[in-house]
From TrEMBL, chains A, B, C:
This is Metalloreductase STEAP4. InterPro entries: Fe3_Rdtase_TM_dom, NAD(P)-bd_dom_sf, P5C_Rdtase_cat_N, STEAP_metalloreductase. The chain crosses the membrane at residues 198-218, 245-271, 292-316, 346-364, 422-441. Keywords: Copper, Endosome, FAD, Flavoprotein, Ion transport, Iron, Iron transport, Membrane, Metal-binding, Oxidoreductase, Transmembrane, Transmembrane helix, Transport. Coiled coil: none annotated. Pfam families: F420_oxidored, Ferric_reduct. Residues 20-106 form the Pyrroline-5-carboxylate reductase catalytic N-terminal domain. It comes from the Eukaryota.
Amino acid sequence: MNSDSVAMTELHGKMQEQETVCIFGTGDFGRSLGLRLLQSGYNVVYGSRDPKNSLLLPKGSKVMAHAAAACEAHVIFVAVQREHYGFLKSLASTLAGKVLIDVSNNLRRGLYPESNAEYLSSLVPGATVVKAFNTISAWALQSGGLDANRQVLICGDRADAKQQVVDIAQSLGFTVLDRGSLRAAAELEDLPLQLFPLWRLPFCIAFCLTAFIFFYALTRDVIYERVTNGKDNAFRIMISLANRVFPIVSLVMLALCYLPGALAGFLQLYNGTKYRRFPDWLDRWMLCRKQLGLLALAFGFLHVLYTLVIPIRYYVRYRINVYVISLVKDNKTYEFDNTVAWRHDAYISMGILGFGLFVLLGITSLPSVSNSLNWREFSFVQSKLGYMTLLLCTAHTFLYGWDKFLRTSSYRWWMPPSYMLSLVVPCVVLILKLILIMPCVDRKVTRIRQGWERQSKTSSNCSDTKTNQPLMA
Amino acid sequence: MNSDSVAMTELHGKMQEQETVCIFGTGDFGRSLGLRLLQSGYNVVYGSRDPKNSLLLPKGSKVMAHAAAACEAHVIFVAVQREHYGFLKSLASTLAGKVLIDVSNNLRRGLYPESNAEYLSSLVPGATVVKAFNTISAWALQSGGLDANRQVLICGDRADAKQQVVDIAQSLGFTVLDRGSLRAAAELEDLPLQLFPLWRLPFCIAFCLTAFIFFYALTRDVIYERVTNGKDNAFRIMISLANRVFPIVSLVMLALCYLPGALAGFLQLYNGTKYRRFPDWLDRWMLCRKQLGLLALAFGFLHVLYTLVIPIRYYVRYRINVYVISLVKDNKTYEFDNTVAWRHDAYISMGILGFGLFVLLGITSLPSVSNSLNWREFSFVQSKLGYMTLLLCTAHTFLYGWDKFLRTSSYRWWMPPSYMLSLVVPCVVLILKLILIMPCVDRKVTRIRQGWERQSKTSSNCSDTKTNQPLMA
Amino acid sequence: MNSDSVAMTELHGKMQEQETVCIFGTGDFGRSLGLRLLQSGYNVVYGSRDPKNSLLLPKGSKVMAHAAAACEAHVIFVAVQREHYGFLKSLASTLAGKVLIDVSNNLRRGLYPESNAEYLSSLVPGATVVKAFNTISAWALQSGGLDANRQVLICGDRADAKQQVVDIAQSLGFTVLDRGSLRAAAELEDLPLQLFPLWRLPFCIAFCLTAFIFFYALTRDVIYERVTNGKDNAFRIMISLANRVFPIVSLVMLALCYLPGALAGFLQLYNGTKYRRFPDWLDRWMLCRKQLGLLALAFGFLHVLYTLVIPIRYYVRYRINVYVISLVKDNKTYEFDNTVAWRHDAYISMGILGFGLFVLLGITSLPSVSNSLNWREFSFVQSKLGYMTLLLCTAHTFLYGWDKFLRTSSYRWWMPPSYMLSLVVPCVVLILKLILIMPCVDRKVTRIRQGWERQSKTSSNCSDTKTNQPLMA
């Protein structure tokens, strides 16, 4: 490489000593970007309306009027808000042939008919516009990309212009993902404005479920008591009722997180192929399984806390003390019931083990953990351990109920105890799964998932993207 | 860069407008890959046995017969299962000089004598085979690599072919790790089939320990009671016994996680150098310290939950109530014992602080957290805080036992209480560590770890790879 | 790409078959580096004082005397401790024109007046020195960069030399961040020696607060009791006192984590611009908000554990039993107080919900999670949910106190109950925030943060780096 490498560097644009980059706009983003560029060995020239009054710019950069600045460099960052793009039209001739990087974002979605980058391109048709860096915050630029998001998404119509932006982004320590032509700019500009899009459906489900179970339990436990016995139980809302609602919502949502996978399996069996698309609702459901599972875990976590504080509660201490006093006064004997002890301990134990596994599932779905697992490990954890969790939690609920469902006293106003409602979905899921793992069915499903079809015989790679994969991730 | 950069782009392969890439195989992986390539600005041509019937392919791609498709591109992805590789032989002349990327995986390990990539290379000797992308799932390709594993492992015999694959992978937003020549392909093909290889040994240890302690405690607490007093205590298995087994396993495994480091220190002292290899068993033990520690944390977590539910248990409430009733009836005075209060609170407090530190250790061993620490910070947390955790948990156990070991009644059938068993390993580790941190010994160990040797004097960099590093990570 | 790409590879240095790299030093780092370079397709030549006795070097590498080794390659890694740099002076003529990569670290900060890299450059003025890889451990090199820190920081004075180092680092699977000229080497050499620099201030605050609250509570609860009633309450230190100190420290630190943001808002209002720098103390405070928050969470976690063990404590069981016995003996009636039940349950419930949200904030501040959020999501979680947490925890404390502050008996030696102290800072923060979100003030603040100024009208990008961003991250 000795003599050759020196010759090579002359050819290579990146290696030219101190390439110059221009930045229009001296706001936060412009300044952070300039600082980072200077640190990475670029010359930086700012274009400003008022070069004399541009304070706080990083040391080592120059400030000029827009036109003069534009002449200094081939690549120009447009770090100006869209409303101020107007002045660029007058610079059109100066900017012809240059690469303009649009880094702008909007305050709301759908504010303008076309994306900022396409608007910029229409203003300066002679220049090549590349959309990039808009998902990176000024903060991420300043903090050296060490713990902030390091991925720069770019799009643009010309490959050579994009390559220059890729080079700059990589010099700055970012990784780059190309999202195609400038038509993708609208999508990129929407990204920073999204607010948990995948969480929306799970949140709705959680909210509706919580509201329904809450009013159901309220009717059974508080209103019924009030109407039939005239007792005021309203204080029970804060903890007793909460601790009735949370576990039910948690269990149902955990089951909902595994239901679509089971349904998909049956659908594939019915279709006899995995190459037919699932109905849209099933697709959308499957995409938010991870979020469903994590919400279920949050509710489960609250259930655990609410359960563990039980013995600290004033009401519980009162009840126990009154019971003991009555036992003493009435001189009754107090029998130990072995079956109750077994059942009670088993029910608590199932709950703890289920919760422990659930926490493990949650930890495994942390991005950095799931990234360090290979496919087989990930699906082992999310599928095998996931069903084990569901099984333990369902058993926990069954043991909690025990033989209550036989006693008529537990049906108030014909409403069964709320825990019984929570068992419907998990049981359906477990039964479906049981059918799917029966040897004869399993063999067929596995064959379908490996690419076999009932009619044709397309060759295909073995990894399955739909039903196996995103069980909870 | 102005005029120069344009000239440069002509030379640069990546910047040619729309490079064409061919994909053999229209299965899940082929389709996801094609979609991603299209998004990143490549032309995609599919090779298919039945071009007319290839549905669901991404928009913008073309489908042809294999031979025609192969002519369109220099780089060809072979996204076909190994069993169908046969047809490639007939295309050997068309494929000569091309770069074939083998992305295949097998269903089980050891299914074939040679790796798929080497088999492919033997079928088409004129082409250059590069193994790559087999650790990436179709899902990771689809989801844009944002939260799925972003590292592509590649291997191959020719550097220029590998460089072309590296360029494609980087354009797709992946990072690349070169694993050497095509002989490494077998190893790469095994990677997606591994199931927690580093966890196997720790799991075995945990399982054996749990089984042993369980049967030990079962004998002492349930069988002994049954045989000598005729009492049926079997219901205690669910919680009381579990809560005896979990903390013991947790403490012993935490100690086992620090034992190899201490042993290694003594071995280095004995050898007088750090450049002699450790025995194999010690090496293997040290490699799974993180896993040992995390399993210990899991058992500790269960111990905490099982302890916190104690006051909710039917059995415990029964016992307390019966006790109070008997006090009232017998009209006994109930004395407050200050020492017991101190001991009891101290024992609980140590446990809580130890568990708190343990959770901190666990959080620090999350990949994303440990990556953000430098070497000194990481070893401070895992070594200093780790030993502090061990010390607190051992103290917790000692205070729990207090003077029980003096009472003969606690030795049933000559078996000491189970908590005493759990103290052996931690005490050994703590004593070894105490010796190692004595100033005179410590000076010697530090010198050895900085590269000094008893006989020779090799210069070396100061970072130590064996004994300091992977204390728990 | 067909014929062209072959021509291209001839030009491209990276693609030449088997570039040779030289490593001076056969210590841990040198060996790990060599192994990794070999795996990535480089030829490796070691330079050693004693080539005959260099054992344990990776297979495939060659060992020579320093001068001979240096002739083999253009790029030379200097993996030797600074004290041994002397011999390089005699090789100055051989090394002229080469690229020397300084990978060294020191044992302590400030050991030498100039950085190792600058010292190396002064010893061999004819060579180009690049500082790199010093933040990467031998371990990270060995383990393939899969779960260790993958970012290589480099600095140096010549762009072409740096580019060669960048190419090598990327071939090895690392990402690179350029930190500028060789003057930055001192900073890079300090990085691996830092011990949680951002945590220092929060730790001091936590320590001082804990000490103060501890002695305050000790005086009120133990010493006062001893002096006035002669009762020995010292055993309460272990749990009761700890559980008084932890929640107070937690709440105050949580509030301290949101106070600077509120202050900054008022400062911007007062200045009428966001482009004036904040005073230094405010800047430093804002930079450690994440650490303040995480410490507050740790204290909160301990508070939860200390609270949940209450019913297990010997002292608590004793108190309850004595109370019940006294009730029975005195034949008193035991009235249920509905208000107390409400208040008690509400207070516990607020605490649980606050803690749940707090844990969520903590999870969101894990690097891998916060990286997967966009700007809007991150600020929603850290700002909206953060204030909600603060509100819930403050309400929890208020409900805990209830009307105690009215009773004179709770002022011992004129000292108010310790919980009252903890409410000062949170209330100040909540009131400041309340003012800031009043519509009239909010509109002004928003306008300022979007770049408007009272006097001038600079155009600026909309993302705000100071007050919105690092609320807890």
